[in-house]
Amino acid sequence: MAKQKLSIKAKAAKAKRDLKAAKTKDRKAKKAENQRKRRAAKKAGKNVKGKDFDHKERKFKSVKKNRGNDGKGTKREGKKKYRTSKS
Prior knowledge:
Elements lengths: L7 H15 L2 H19 L7 E4 L4 E4 H5 L20
Antiparallel strand pairs: 1-2
C-alpha cells in the first residue's frame, strides 16, 4: 500500500487523530487482549507470525483477511460486531 501524500499540516492533524483513536478505551482493550492471545499462542507452540487476532471470529487469521474483512471491505463493518474478553 502506497504512503498517503499529505501536506505537513494534514500529516500533523492525522497523527493527532490517530493517536486519539489508539488511546480510546475500546482500542486499548483490543490491543491488550491481542497481546495476551499472542503470548498464549506462542507459549502453546503455535506459529502466529504474520497473523492478527480477529475479535469478531475470535481466532488468528492473516493480516490481509482480518483487516480487509475477508474481502468484503470495512465500510459496512461496525464497532458493535467486535468484542473483547471484557465485553
